[in-house]
């Protein structure tokens, strides 16, 4: 996995810093912290995992059920107090979900390794894996309803997706520092931290 090079402070914009001292100095000078996160990687291949509740995306990146059915589980997974909360309600379909699937915001969706988790007619989670240019497979989002009935679904979704990524060397993702439950789940699958970044907007 490559790291974004350090950009001198006089350049205006959003940059990722991989040194704690440099990040602290920029923040002290008025930069705004946008995200503090670990970049993680999982070596492939990984033994496959099958689950009839996981419904893959169609080859054209169409979800297996309408996006409207996804919103309740997505909002439950990312409440207002969550470090990765994304506001928007139903508008998330056009502002977030479609750009990261059919819109190739981070890279083309790897449809056979992306899925929605569905039980008794209700979507309770999902995973979106893209082929990130220069990086390879990348989990751009994974979520599940926090109801205890769906405990462990995140780990299962990751194993399911990783088992379908034949021909690739690694699967990457980013987890926000402070999202300890997600970090522990990723580590159980076998992900390891490669770097930690402070993404800041320069004044």
From the alpha carbons, calculate the radius of gyration and give it in angstroms.
Answer: 17 Å
Give the C-level CATH assignment of one domain. Answer: Alpha Beta
Based on the coordinates given, report the CATH architecture of one domain: 3-Layer(aba) Sandwich
> What number is the mean pLDDT?
91
For this structure, the CATH topology of one domain is Aminopeptidase
Q: Secondary-structure element sequence?
A: EHEEHHEEEEHEHE
**DSSP strand count:** 9
- Uncertain spans, ≥5 residues at pLDDT below 50? 1-11
Our measurement of the CA-to-CA distance between the termini, rounded to an integer number of angstroms, reads 28 Å
How would you describe what is shown here?
- With 203 residues, this protein is α+β, with helices and mostly antiparallel strands.
- The protein contains five helices and nine strands.
- It has helices at 20-28, 71-77, 92-97, 153-163, 180-189; strands at residues 14-17, 32-43, 54-56, 108-109, 115-119, 122-132, 136-144, 170-176, 192-201.
- Helix 4 (153-163) packs across helix 5 (180-189).
- Mean pLDDT is 91; it is low at 1-11.
- It has a domain at 45-168: 3-Layer(aba) Sandwich (Aminopeptidase), CATH 3.40.630.
- The longest helix has 11 residues, at 153-163.
Give the secondary structure arrangement, pairings included.
Layout: E1 14-17, H1 20-28, E2 32-43, E3 54-56, H2 71-77, H3 92-97, E4 108-109, E5 115-119, E6 122-132, E7 136-144, H4 153-163, E8 170-176, H5 180-189, E9 192-201
Antiparallel strand pairs: 1-9, 2-8, 2-9, 3-5, 4-6, 5-6, 6-7
Helix pairs in contact: 4-5
């Amino acid at each position: 996995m490559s790291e974004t090079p350090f950009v001198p402070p006089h350049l205006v914009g959003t940059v990722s810093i991989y040194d704690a001292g440099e990040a602290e100095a920029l923040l002290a000078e008025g930069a705004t912290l946008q995200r503090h996160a670990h970049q993680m990687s999982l070596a492939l291949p990984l033994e496959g995992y099958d689950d009839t509740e996981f419904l893959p995306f169609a080859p054209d990146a169409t979800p297996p059920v309408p996006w409207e059915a996804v919103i309740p589980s997505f909002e439950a997974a990312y409440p207002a107090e969550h470090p990765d909360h994304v506001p928007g309600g139903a508008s998330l379909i056009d502002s977030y979900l479609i750009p990261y699937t059919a819109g190739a915001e981070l890279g083309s969706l790897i449809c056979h390794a992306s899925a929605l988790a569905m039980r008794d007619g209700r979507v309770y989670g999902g995973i979106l894996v893209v082929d990130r240019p220069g990086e390879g497979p990348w989990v751009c989002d994974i979520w599940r309803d926090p109801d205890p009935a769906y405990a462990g679904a995140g780990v299962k979704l990751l194993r399911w997706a990783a088992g379908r990524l034949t021909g690739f060397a690694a699967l990457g993702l980013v987890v926000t520092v402070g999202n300890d439950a997600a970090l522990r789940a990723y580590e159980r699958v076998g992900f390891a931290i490669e770097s930690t970044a402070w993404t800041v907007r320069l004044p």
